[in-house]
Design goal:
With 306 residues, the protein is of the alpha/beta class. The chain has eleven helices and eleven strands.
Length: 306
């Protein structure tokens, strides 16, 4: 409860205010997300239960590591911590770049936590979806250079998080997958998920990916532009660090303005419709058919684990 109160103050997330918001169908990524680490000298470190941030003032680069076992699911608490951590970095003018990665083996983030969307009250769904919105708005519109060091599978919400970054480096392991696979859960990705993917890989690729709930292996993801670079698994973070120096060589003001120019239309679409988006998601999630579908999915997961 205290953490959510902090979020309301620091991140603009209204915890109790039941905010209605835009578009129905998609808080459905029932999984998790994650991000890697950076170790350097002269750094300020802050550790929370689900996320660790290492900030090196000598380079101006922070590494945010997702450490929420087993799969870095995007729960309400996770999103709250993420948003607070990102807000702190944004307000520190000495921080110019952010690398996100996972400390969990084989997974970057499995996406949205299905438990947050099943068997809860409409008020809880509103609170959760607003946190999802806030995560995307803050990361997609960040003034920092953002690089996703994808060192494991990244379905659904994990894929969304990766696509919000300026650059994506993925481990070249054919066992890993990435994509927005909501339809396989009987859920529809909301317009701003769709827009984010369309801005990344184009309209036709997005149309097929969303309708079929496709998950791509690293080679396939690189081919369509869902990720920008593949490297051996043990070189993901090192490569992200090296790549960051190239991005930071560009004058900040020019890069900021260019990023804002490219992303503002997509950001404006959500910010002008947040209440409708939330309400539509709540209306969708509370349908009996959707609750049954999510319940069946969780039962399937239990049997797999068993």
């Amino acid at each position: 409860m205290a953490l959510r109160a902090v979020l309301r103050n620091k991140c603009g997330l209204s915890v109790r205010a039941g905010l209605l918001s835009q578009w129905s169908s998609c808080s459905s990524h029932g999984r998790v997300c994650a991000s890697p680490i950076l170790v350097t000298q002269q750094r300020n470190n802050s550790t929370s239960p689900k996320i660790k941030v290492d900030f090196d003032r000598s380079t101006g680069v922070a590494v945010m590591r997702f450490q929420s076992p087993p799969v870095n699911s995007l729960s309400l608490d996770f999103l709250t911590e993420f948003c607070i951590g990102l807000e702190k970095l944004e307000t520190d003018k000495s921080c110019r770049g952010l690398i996100i990665t996972s400390s969990q083996p084989k997974v970057f983030s499995a996406g949205l936590d299905v438990m947050e969307m099943y068997g809860k009250s409409p008020e809880h769904y509103r609170e959760f979806w607003r946190a999802v919105q806030e995560m995307w708005l803050k990361l997609y519109g960040s003034n920092m250079v953002t690089i996703a060091a994808i060192n494991g599978s990244s379905p659904a919400g994990g894929c969304l998080m990766s696509m919000t970054c300026d650059y994506r480096i993925m481990a070249d392991n054919p066992r890993y997958t990435i994509g927005l696979n909501e339809t396989l859960l009987g859920i529809v990705a909301p317009p701003w998920f769709k827009d984010t993917m369309s801005n990344t890989v184009g309209h036709r690729q997005t149309e097929m990916a969303l309708e079929l709930g496709l998950l791509y292996n690293p080679s396939e993801a690189l081919k369509i532009g869902l990720v920008d670079q593949l490297v051996p698994e043990d070189q993901v973070l090192t490569t992200a660090t090296q790549t960051m120096t190239k991005w930071l060589a560009v004058p900040d003001h020019a890069r900021h303005l260019t990023k804002f120019m490219m992303r503002k239309p997509t950001i404006d679409k959500l910010t002008s419709n947040r209440e409708a988006d939330i309400q539509q998601v709540v209306d969708f999630i509370t349908k009996d058919s959707i609750q049954r579908s999510l319940g069946a999915y969780m039962e399937m997961l239990k049997k797999r684990r068993g």
